[in-house]
């Protein structure tokens, strides 16, 4: 299952680092999952299926000192990024489930990236959640059989921090090189 960080945090990284990828589509197609914590520390982790094309892009990222850490497993690559300063506040809002409170800049980046690279239904849902769509809110009210929601109610659930935390011992029984 793909984590929520794939939809809300990955687009910020794509926008910031897309110039280092020869073909961002190949990179995105090979992502297995994303995480917002690395062994309980604040990092963004991308697990990608290993291929020669991906290795060339990773080498480019590494040469430009973008990666905090990099692990080369038998058939997967683990990329660990520091959270860029310009996205730190939105990173914390994401952790706290406050999607509609993201900065306008981050919302625009997420929506632009989702429109360009994600399936249409994912793009539509992300947009509705970030801007608290009245239609989505009405659908939620109807589905829950209630007439009102608190003002600060978000239109998707808060993340499961355990699911969004990459633990090396949980992921791999083998030693990481």
Kindly describe this structure.
The protein is of the alpha+beta class and 177 residues long. Helices cover 45% and strands 18% of the residues. It has a five-stranded mixed sheet with strand order 3-4-2-1-5. α2 crosses α6 and α6 packs antiparallel against α7. The longest helix has 14 residues. The model has no long low-confidence stretch (mean pLDDT 88).
What's the arrangement of secondary structure elements?
Blueprint: H1 4-8, H2 10-17, H3 24-29, E1 31-38, E2 41-49, H4 52-63, E3 67-72, E4 76-82, H5 88-95, H6 104-117, H7 120-130, H8 134-144, E5 165-166, H9 168-171
Parallel strand pairs: 1-5
Antiparallel strand pairs: 1-2, 2-4, 3-4
Helix pairs in contact: 2-6, 6-7
Count of the domains: 1
SSE class: alpha+beta
Between the first and last Cα atoms, what is the distance in angstroms? 26 Å
Radius of gyration over all CA atoms, rounded: 17 Å
Order of helices and strands: HHHEEHEEHHHHEH
Main sheet, how many strands, which sense, barrel?
Answer: 5 strands, mixed
Quantity of strands, as a count: 5
């Amino acid at each position: 299952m793909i984590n929520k960080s794939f939809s809300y945090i990955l687009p910020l990284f794509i926008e910031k680092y897309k110039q280092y990828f020869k073909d961002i589509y190949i990179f995105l197609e090979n992502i297995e999952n994303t995480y917002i914590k690395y062994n309980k520390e604040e990092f963004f982790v991308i697990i990608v299926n290993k291929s020669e094309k991906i290795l060339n892009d990773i080498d480019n990222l590494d040469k430009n000192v973008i990666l905090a850490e990099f692990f080369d497993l038998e058939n997967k690559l683990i990329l660990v990024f520091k959270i860029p300063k310009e996205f730190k506040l939105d990173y914390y809002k994401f952790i706290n489930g406050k999607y509609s409170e993201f900065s306008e800049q981050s919302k625009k980046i997420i929506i632009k990236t989702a429109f360009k690279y994600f399936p249409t239904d994912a793009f539509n849902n992300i947009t509705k959640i970030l801007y608290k769509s009245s239609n989505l809110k009405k659908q939620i009210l109807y589905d829950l059989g209630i007439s009102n929601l608190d003002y600060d109610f978000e239109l998707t659930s808060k993340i499961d921090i355990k699911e969004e935390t990459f633990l090396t011992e949980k992921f791999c029984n083998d030693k990481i090189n």
